Structure formats: C-alpha cells, structure tokens
Amino acid sequence: MYSFKSVEEKWQKIWIQNNTNVTPSISPTDRDNKCYVLEMLPYPSGKIHMGHVRNYCIGDVLVRYKKALGYKVLHPMGWDAFGMPAENAAIQNGTHPKVWTYQNIEEMKNTIISLGLSYDWDRELATCSEEYYGHEQRLFIEIYEKGLVYRKESWVNWDPVDNTVLANEQVIDGKGWRSGADVVKKQLPQWCLRITQYAEELLRNLATLKSDVNCGGWPEKVLTMQENWIGKSDGMSIKFKIIKNSNYVGYPEDNLVIFTTRPETLFGASFCAIACNHPLALLIAQENKAAATFISECQKIPTTECSQSIVEKKGFNTGMFVSNAINQDDVLPIFIANFVLMEYGTGAIFGCPAHDERDFEFATKYNLPIRSVISSSKSDSLPYVCTNGMMINSGFLNGLSVADARTTVCNFLEKALLGTRETTYRLRDWSVSRQRYWGCPIPMIHCKKCGIVTVPKKDLPIVLPDDVDFSVPGNPLDHHPTWKYVKCPYCGTDAERETDTLDTFFESSWYFLRYCSPHDDEPINKKAIEAWMPVDVYIGGIEHAVLHLLYARFFTMVLSDCGYINIREPFTTLLTQGMVCHTSFQDDSGKWLYPNEVEIEKDGKCFAVDDGRHVTAVRSEKMSKSKKNLIDPEQIISTYGLDALRIFIMSDTPYEKDFDWNTDALDGAWRYLNKMWRLCERINAKYKIFTEVLYKNDSAAIDSSHILKVTHCYLKKINTAFDQIVFHKAIAFHRELTRAIEGVLNEDVPVHIMAEVINIWIRVFAPFAPHFALEAYQFLFSSPETIDLLHWPTLRSELAREDTATIAVQVNGRLRHTFESHLGRSDDELKEISLSNEHVKKFIKCNTVKKVIIVPDKLVNIVTE
Asked: What one-character DSSP code corresponds to residue 452?
C-alpha cells in the first residue's frame, strides 16, 4: 500500500528546505526561457473550495512541466482583499474588516501550502496592505495627471444592501453581483476613468489574442464577449426638428438629435423616445407632474442594457412632436420611455416597429403606426430584422438594397445638413467610486479655495483609519469625526479628504505587474516588467471575461502610456476553467443537505442519514454554500492524498468544461496510484536499483525492444498533450503506457532498456503527482535525498516513429472491424485481409461486393449491392 501521508509530508519539507519554488532571477536580455504562469488571485473568504483547487492544480501542473523543461518560472500568489464582504462581516460579527480579512488570509494560505502547490510565497501580496494601496494611490494620481480621470455627477447603479455604486458590468439581471439586491438608479458625483478613449485599441487588439493550438491565445467565447461589450457601431446622428406646439416647453435646442445604426429605416419611423434623464425629459417634468412621476418610476430601473431589455416597455406621451428628418410632413410623437438609456448614443431613439422587436412591443402597446419598409422572402410576420432585403414604402429609396439605401440616405442627410456619420461604442467610462470603508482611499482633497486637488505623493499612502463605526448606515469614512478633515496641501485652509474608495477591480487591474517586483520602492519596476511580462498563461473563470479582463487590458495600455511598461496586452494565453459541480440534495420541506448527510441506495433513492426522511437529488450544479453541495478539500486530501486528488481533477474532463464530482472516479485515481506503486515494487524486485539511465548505442537491443519504441511513441503523444494543455489526454496516454510496461515485466528486457522506459514513465507523471513521482524515482534510481525536480525526458525521435497503423474496416460506410497493420501495406493486401475476416463476413452475408474503397494506412470500406 502506497503511504501517501508520509510521502507527501516528506517531499513538501524538502521543497521548503531547498527553496524549490523561489523564482530565479532573470534580466530583460535573458528571457527566452521565461514562463510566467498566474491564476487569478482569490478573495480571502476563509475557505478553499474545490473550484480553487481545480484552478490552482491546472496552473501547478503546467508550472511543473515548464520547470522540468528548463524554463525559469514565475508563479506567485496573493489576495484580492478589499471589498464589501469584509464590511458585512464586521457589521454581523462585530469584527474589524482588517482583522477578518487577515484571519481568512492566514487560514486560506495554510490550506494552499498544504496542497503542495509550487507558489513563490516570497512574492505574496495582499491588495489591502498599506504598501500595495499606497502604490495604487500614486498610480491613480499619475493617471489623473494624464487626463484620464475625471469627476462628474452621473446616474449610477445603486445597491441598497451594500450601500454602494455598481458598475454596469456588476449588475446581473437587475441585481447586485454580490448582494443579489434589486439595483436602483441614483445620481451621485463619481470618479471615472476614460476607458472609452481606448475603445478602438481594446477592440482592435482582440485580433492579436485569437487562440491558436500551437501559440496559445484566448478562447473565442471571451473575445466575442469583449467585442460585444465594447460594441462598436457605425451609424449616423440625425436632427429631428422639434415642432413648437402648445405643449412645447422651451427646450433650448431646435432639434432632437438621435443616433442610429439603421438610418435606412427612417421611412418606417412612427415615434421618437427619450431617456428619463434626457435634458428635454427633465425640462418637461418641471411643468408636468405626471411626467415627473413617470420619471421617478423609471429611475428604479438599473442603468444597464440588460435591465432595460427585460422590463415591460412603458412610455409617457409628452404631447410634443418632431418632424421626420427625411420627410418633413411625417410628424412623430415624442415619448419618455423606460427602455432608453442616456448613457448610450444621445439618449434618444426613433422607433421603427416593423423591424425591431422592442419598438414593435412599444408601438403595439400604444397603438402607434407600424410600416414595413424592407421586403423579406423569409418572413411575413412582424417584426422581422432583415439586412439583405429590398426597400419598399420608402420614397426615393424604393428598390434599393438595404446596404445601398443606407449609403444613399446618409449622403442625402449629410448634404441637407441634417446628419453626420459617426462611430459610437457601447462601452462607457469606468465609474470607480465606491461608498464604502474597506477599499483604497481615493487620494484627492476637496478645498473650497483651490477646488479638487491631489494629495502630494510624499504624503502617500493615505491610510484607512482603524477606529470606524459601522453602526451608522452609509460610508463610515464619510461620518468619521476626524479622518476626513485636513488642511489643503497647497493653500493651507481647511479642506476635506475624498471619502469614496476605489472599486476593487482597480486593485486587480495591475497586481500581475506588481508580482514582478513586489518589494520595490516604486509601484512598478520597468526592468522586471521587461523581464517577465506579459503573463504567458493566465487561468481563471470565464465569469471574469468582461469585468476583470477588460479592465486589466485597459490598465496595461494606460500604464504603458504613463511610461511604466512597454507592453500593450497583459496576458498571452488565457485558460478559462469550468466549474466544479456536484449533485444538490433537498428534502421535502425545501431544506438543502450536504452530500455527507445523504445516503443514496442502489436504485437511486435518497434518504437523510439522521432520520431517514425522503431526499430529492435535484441536479448537478456549481458547488455553492447556499445549496450545500460542497466537498471539503481537506477531508478528501486526508482520505485520498494530494496526488490522487490532482489526478482525479485532471483526468477525463478538459479544463474548460464543467467538472462533475464523481467519488467512483476519485477512487479510480487512488487505485491507479497504488497500482503504479505495486508496479514499482515489482520492478525493484526484478532489477533492484537502476544506478543510471544508460543510453547505449546498442542498435540490436533497441531494434528488438518493442517496449522502448512504445514508450517513446507515448512520450511524443504526452509532449503534444502538454504543449496543447490537454492534460486529460496526457493522463490517458500514461495509463496506456503503464499497461504496456505491465505486459513486459515477465519478459527478459535488458536493464538499460528498462531503466530508460521507467525513467520516462516516472518523469512524465511528475507534473500530475509530484510527491509520488519523486518517491518512486528515489525508490528505483540511485538519487540524492534532496532531489526536488525531475527534468523532462528526452524524446528519441527515431524511436517514436509509428511503424504500424490501425485500419478501420467499414461495410457500407459503417464501422465493423479494426486491425493493426504495418505502414505501407498495399491496397490488395488490405483488401484481402478485410474480406477474409470472419467478423466482417457476417455483415457482408450473401451480398455481392460491388467495390472496395481504400484509404492507405487508414480505411477499408466495403460497398455491397
């Protein structure tokens, strides 16, 4: 029996003693064999879950492979430690956020260390440390001085539970991404970053991140999500003349300007709609109480497109009208609508109900005209979107294709000075203000004499006060008795600090740069960046596709423009691992149960362990605290060991797919380790200790050694699997190699041949089961007690050439048989072997063979009448 507990403890002590995981030093001129592998830094919630374990194991396997190949590897770990959960814990438990956070960091760090992962803990950082956020404050000031930070009154998404502003990306289906509370709109002064100035580069550079099987890259799904979020639109801003009737409210502009990407549908327009916070709407509300009431209701809807899309479409008829820009006789009513956003375009739209589902719903509700202006051969039912039909009911555009009509109408409107071609982006500037305590203080001061000024860099960091009161609702910094009161550093008069803190995505947008020189006096060491960046492989969940990853790309571009770094993109290869799932269990009262509280019988029926009550196995879904479908990693490790857990997690399922927890498969990983150890004992009993791996120029022995050729063929396949990061295939190939070795143990294989085979067999397994591999190597080979790394074996290409092929035999296109054949066998021979096979004859029966199609070294297809 393989004694995993003593083995894993032994090798982890050796790794610590040898400083195995300390990052080697490199220079910008010596970076050809560098490899920077990084998993997204975790929030210190207090417990490591299986999602963490899978994420970290993927990175660790890759790191150990790269180190075995001779790469100099940077593999750090840290903590994304600011945020609302710490404040919520402080309120609920009477614990200071700093105390709660650092206690959790200690607990999680100890668990991660026990996992035997190859992190360089000398580079550990916590984003809540004064050192880290002091450097961050300096970066904020320099970005501000670059003109990329500004403050303005704006409508924001307000989370009434967390009492803070949320970015659009943090509102999921109308609810706060952390609290789950219904988000409302609120007007507040906000600090914003001009990410929109980088929209075109953010979009353009996506092409450089496309995935390639040999060169890494990003998943297509993530690239599509970012492209859609940036949302480049080519269209036209069009002037609709406001008609001054009895309901006219004295709007200072003569025209209502509307941006559209479909100007060719103007002849189908039946109404115009403006956002509830459009200047015209606010002016109308001053005179009309009903309008004011409607606007108040609209402001309860979050400012995201998703939230607007799912609400019932409602409007308030203002009684005002505009003339259609393309036909002055066509008068359109103006509505205030709950689905129009001021943040997109000009905050005003024209509705063409026949060819837009949202407009159709609105027009139907308010009995507005619906005019089809594009013919469609595919659908007669409205609404339909058609971009390749012909124009109808459109005056001078009739008979033109949609594309030609778009060009024609744009030319017409520009010539008439009624419109201009424009490019817009769905992306909005990033609001980074948060009304909470546990975050990085924004280093700005409000002075009545000087205005808003930056904190002098010599006074950084601006440290959070420890003596805060969470019993009063709102931001503790705002009602602190002393902290916010300061003297203006420029005129000496009384002033106040900014009490908003930074969005936590600000911290995670540059931490990967700090890892390159975590103890430097400067925020970022340019030489260290030139040596290590970009990150070669970045690993994390696809849920960060728009939030963190977009901000990190933006930050990299900004810091490049500030002179800190010389790259424009931070991550070369992105791996997005799937979720770890487990069946959730619920009793008849709706109570969720932990898996260890449920007994499952052979027929699949489930009962509670404590009292035998009926339990329903609901579904396999992401492990979560709320559903209690959790598996404790520490319990699994104590029962099966680290290496068995690693093999289980890496086997069968590609990293990007969701992973269903399966105890039988975990047992299988444990059995495989024990099988390998028994094999080691049999090898040791037969060969004793291999003193060295002898690559003898013994052509006769090599030519006669089938197992050595098989081993190098598998080594070639495993190399490819590692390079393409398909670890489940590498493990499958290793299992096949194990079976091949078992099959020759009773044969008289020369010692130097077997030594080379076993050397490869153990070494390629080391990234998956590092403790086991080192122990097995030390057991079978004469190696020092302090060995801590097994270098990758060298492939002998001349032995890895396949000299046989598996031939598939089909009868009328259906696979009926396979057989092994040496390469280059003639068509006649393949035909004869296939037709003479007894199993194939059963499918031919009495039918006449009409023809035999042969693909050399691959396929024989027998076609019968």
From this structure: E
Whether omega for the bond prior to residue 534 falls within 30 degrees of 0, making it cis, is: yes
> Which residue do the tokens 């040496």 mark?
822
Give the 3-state DSSP-derived string for 106-167, with helices as H, strands as E and coil as C: HHHHHHHHHCCCCCCHHHCEECCCHHHHHHHHHHHHHHHHCCCEEEEEEEEEEECCCCEEEC
Spell out the alpha helix ranges (H) of 50-121: 50-68, 84-93, 97-114
Q: Which residue has the tokens 């091949």?
A: 740
Return the number of other C-beta atoms located less than 10 Å from residue 88's C-beta: 18
How far apart, in whole angstroms, are the C-alpha atoms of residue 341 and residue 301?
A: 11
pLDDT tens track for 285-336: 998 999 999 998 888 776 655 555 667 899 999 999 999 999 888 999 999 9
Dihedral angle over CA of 418, 422, 424, 430, nearest 10:
-90
- Quote the pTM value: 0.86
pLDDT tens per residue, range 255-288: 999 999 999 999 999 999 999 999 999 999 998 9
Cis before 461 (ω within 30)? yes
CB-CB neighbours of 791 under 10 Å = 11
Burial class (CB in 10 A: 0-12, 13-18, 19+), 420: middle
Amino acid at 19: N
| Tens digits of residue pLDDT in 118-164 | 999 999 999 999 999 999 999 999 999 999 999 998 878 888 887 77
Phi, psi of 39 (to 5 degrees): -100, 145
* Model confidence pLDDT, tens digit, residues 419-439: 999 999 989 999 999 989 999
804, 681 in Cβ contact below 8 A?
no
Q: In this structure, are residues 455 and 216 in contact, taking their beta carbons and an 8 Å threshold?
A: no
Burial class (CB in 10 A: 0-12, 13-18, 19+), 526: middle
Instruction: Report yes or no: 821 and 833 within 8 Å, Cβ to Cβ.
Output: yes
Give the list of residues 6+ apart from residue 601 with CB closer than 8 angstroms, or none.
607
Q: Is pLDDT of 506 > 80?
A: yes
Q: Which of 108, 144, 114 is nearest to 126 (CA)?
A: 108
* CA contacts within 13 A on the Cβ side of 612: 0
Comparing CA positions, the residue from 355, 360, 275, 287 lying closest to residue 316 is 275
Pairing of strands 535-540, 571-576: parallel
User: What per-residue confidence (pLDDT) applies to 478?
Assistant: 92
Conformation bin of residue 19: beta by default, left when phi > 0, alpha when psi is -120 to 50: left
What pLDDT, on a 0 to 100 scale, did the predictor assign at position 701? Answer: 57
Alpha helices in 660-764 (DSSP H): 663-687, 699-704, 706-723, 727-744, 751-763
CA distance 377 to 397: 19
Q: Count CB-CB contacts under 10 A for residue 860.
A: 25
Q: Name the average pLDDT for the chain.
A: 90
Q: Which two tokens stand for residue 468?
A: 């805060």
CA distance 523 to 138: 8
Is the pLDDT at 772 greater than 60? The verdict is: yes
The predicted-structure confidence for 691-709, as pLDDT tens digits, reads as follows 554 445 555 555 557 889 9
User: Measured between alpha carbons, how far is 178 from 80 in angstroms, rounded to an integer?
Assistant: 15
**Contact yes or no for 815/861 (Cβ under 8 A):** no
Which H/E stretch holds residue 335? Answer: strand 327-337
Distance CA 453, CA 717 (A): 61
Give φ, ψ of 544 to 5 degrees.
-95, 10
